[in-house]
Design brief:
alpha/beta, Rossmann fold, 2 domains, six-stranded parallel β-sheet, two-stranded parallel ribbon
């Protein structure tokens, strides 16, 4: 029973590739095939490698952030660009009596305005009063508040403020007053009473925020969890989003090693996908990557003829995209008994009409005739894995919770030993395999 495995993006030969390939082959042979009642050798598994045909970013990664960059806006007086600033977590830890004022002074008054307007938006939405008119009023009054906070008058005023109540009163007063009409704020957007309504919303948002901070502190004190974890949970529970670290912290993160690794992985992910579609010729000319996979499929078909057994083809991530392109256009004559796509984006690319062999006027899209059975597996936490049954007719979807988060949910499928066992059990249930 030959098996062809097509890998996804961001895969390059090396020690890691060799370990993952050996792990995968070993578990296909010792777990997957044995659960199907088959005894096979390693030469029945084909692993076409196409990473060398993918993207080749510059070795020095010139697209990565380096060093310190000038901020889009000015920091408060006396705050060094590389220094750490306060955010909501820090304010809760400090047990400040004036969290809004501390946030304004340690980060910026503009951060406070962003926070209050966000909460006021939530109030409008929950009350059913959200409209195009209210959104315009919010924008007009946000400009007025931001203009004040960046003015010399605003900077001098912030030094003298003594409490959150005083800060909120000042902002409310600014919003409640009616300025002269301008081209940017015509008369109908600044009618008396309209600004007062928004001012009250902003003031209420400030009170809600302070109450939430107090509740978070109270609940935090009675729990045994670590301080940082407790803060994040409590602030989430009261529906106030944690603010991003202030400017200085963000600047330091530019040089974090993990951030660089993440950027490099994203570059290869995007680059490999572009390399594949960009190198495709006309509708009769497959991309070089697809040609390499087709060659392995042809070898596996010959192996199948000799063994008189089923051909199983597995595609992970971009591997599933490549296989969808092949079976619908460039190698429709290759018979595949079971096609398994895992954590793949082919449904997305199909909806974007990226496959020339698919008749996009027909929905749902019929399964290719040369594929007897097609199953698609995705983890609900995998942001790069998509279900296919809503778009294709004849493809069976199965979800697999790997219990991993972030990028690990996308790469963890074939690292789980139970995956091979459960996959074989599913195939035994849904496919009438010939006895070994």
């Amino acid at each position: 029973m030959p098996l062809v495995f097509v890998h996804g993006v961001n895969v390059r030969q090396g020690a890691l590739y060799d370990r993952e390939l050996a792990f995968r082959n070993r578990h296909f042979i010792e777990v997957f095939y044995k659960q199907l009642g088959r005894q096979v050798s390693a030469d029945s598994i084909f692993n076409p490698y196409w990473g060398d045909l993918g993207a080749s970013p510059s070795p020095d990664s010139p697209y990565l952030p380096r060093g310190i960059y000038e901020m889009l806006w000015r920091r408060n007086i006396g705050k060094d660009a590389a220094a750490g600033g306060a955010d909501i977590e820090d304010i809760i830890v400090s047990e400040s009596d004036h969290p809004l004022l501390d946030l304004a002074r340690e980060a910026s008054l503009a951060d406070v305005i962003d926070l209050l307007w966000e909460l006021a938006d939530l109030d409008l939405a929950e009350s059913g009063k959200h409209s195009a008119e209210s959104e315009r009023d919010m924008a007009v009054l946000a400009q007025r508040a931001l203009d004040f906070c960046h003015s010399p008058e605003g900077e001098e005023w912030l030094v003298t403020v003594k409490s959150d109540d005083e800060l909120l009163e000042k902002l409310s007063g600014l919003l409640a007053s009616t300025p002269p009409a301008t081209a940017a704020a015509p008369v109908e957007a600044t009618k008396p009473g309209r600004g007062g309504g928004i001012a009250q919303l902003v003031k209420s948002a400030g009170s809600r925020f302070r109450q939430g901070i107090a509740q978070a502190r109270e609940e935090m004190g009675s729990r045994s969890k670590s301080l940082r974890v407790r803060i994040k949970e409590d602030v989430s529970n009261i529906r106030y989003r944690l603010r991003q670290k202030a400017v200085g912290t963000t600047a330091r993160m530019f040089n974090e090693p993990l951030r660089a690794i993440f950027h490099q992985q994203c570059a290869l992910l995007i680059g490999d996908a572009f390399s594949y579609f960009g190198a495709r010729g006309d509708q009769e000319t497959a991309a070089p990557i697809a040609k390499r996979v087709i060659n392995s499929l042809s070898e596996a078909v010959e192996f199948k003829r000799q063994s008189k057994d089923e051909l199983i083809v597995v595609g992970h991530s971009m591997g599933g995209v490549i296989l969808c392109d092949i079976v619908t256009q460039y190698a429709k004559d290759i018979p595949i008994d079971i096609l398994i796509t895992v954590g793949s984006q082919f449904p997305l690319f199909a909806d974007l009409q990226m496959f020339p062999g698919i008749n996009h006027s027909e929905r749902p899209i019929p399964k290719p005739a040369n594929v007897k059975r097609w199953i698609n597996i995705f983890d609900p936490h995998d942001f790069l894995g998509y279900p296919a049954s809503h778009l294709f007719k004849g493809i069976d979807d199965y979800h697999l919770p790997t219990y991993a988060l972030g990028a690990s949910a996308h790469t963890n499928y074939f690292n789980r030993r139970s995956f091979y066992f459960q996959l074989a059990r599913r195939l035994s249930d849904c496919v009438a395999l010939r006895p070994g």
